[in-house]
Amino acid sequence: MDLNTPIISKIIDNWIDEDIGRGDLTSPSITEENGNAYWIAKEGGIFCGVEIIKEIFKKIDLKISSKFNISDGDQFVKDQKLLEIYGPSKSLLASERIGLNIAMHLSGISTYTKNLVNKLEGTNIKLADTRKTTPGLRIFEKYAFKCGGGVNHRMGLYDSAMIKENHIAWTDNLNNAVKKIRLNSPFTTHIIIEAENIEQAKEAVLAGADSVLLDELSPETIKKNVQELRDLSMNSLKKEVNKNLIIEVSGINPEEISKYLIKGIDLISTSSSITKSNWIDLSMRYIKKSYR
Question: What mean pLDDT is predicted for residues 249-259?
């Protein structure tokens, strides 16, 4: 993950300011010395946050050194020692809560995502995320989703166009909606149309959508109609199937994802990795005496 951007640097600065503020009022109670500490997993999962944690350490105190025994996307087990750190005792304690909080949150997302991705094994279907993210944390949460084996959907409203239910309510028809987006956007713009029924999905394909998102449709309905949607993408002039058409499924209960492993589907998108995942429990253990 590239942290060398002003925006990400400012976000991490805000985390530190939120917790430390004008200074740690408890720090005068401890001795001024260097010490060792380590992070340990209190349950298993998929780790996420190595470079982010390193950046937190660096911003709090350049004298903190760290050795990670794990990489982003790696699986870990209960009682596994994840990283070792050395530095001024006050700085180690100042970094503890900020670093653990973001690592536990992101590792929870990665772990939840990996469990869903495993259910797609043996298919050509990819798991995609959504824009349902915590304000201010989108780039980190979407990174955690990737560490769990998923793929990122659009990052925001600026990198692809999606005509959703509420957009359709304010358009005269999908053909004109697509034409207006093409006219006012770069030629590389990807257009997605959300469909709540098969007739709307057919209309979306004929309107020239690059992707059709089948929202809250039953697996039986999708199985019955997915090939027809691909047939409708045929170019009437060249008589060739548009192999670039992406068919996406969303709005399903993640516990029922195995029912949607249907040939012809490219993506299953879900917000559950971020909205339903639990933090993974990690802890820092401090060793007062220095061994360096």
Answer: 96
Output the pTM of the full model.
0.93
Which helix or strand (DSSP H or E) is residue 35 part of? strand 34-41
CA contacts within 13 A on the Cβ side of 199? 0
Question: In the numeric block, which tokens belong to residue 210?
Answer: 């690059």
CB 142 within 8 A of CB 135: no
Residue 185 has pLDDT above 90, yes or no: yes
In CATH, 6-117+278-287 is 3.90.1170.20: yes
For the chain, what percent of residues have pLDDT higher than 90? Answer: 84
- DSSP 3-state assignment of 38? strand
Instruction: Match 């870990």 to its residue by tokens.
Output: 76
- Does domain 122-276 fall under CATH 3.20.20.70? My reply is yes
Question: What is the rounded average pLDDT of the residues 43-67?
Answer: 97
Instruction: Find out whether 39 and 284 touch, Cβ atoms under 8 Å.
Output: yes
Amino acid at 68: F
Alpha carbon distance 8, 11 (integer Å): 5
Query: Measured between alpha carbons, how far is residue 277 from residues 11, 66, 110, 153, 225 in Å?
Result: 22, 28, 9, 18, 32
Residue 132's nearest CA partner among 164, 106, 155, 148 is 155
Contact status, residue 149 vs residue 174, Cβ threshold 8 Å: no
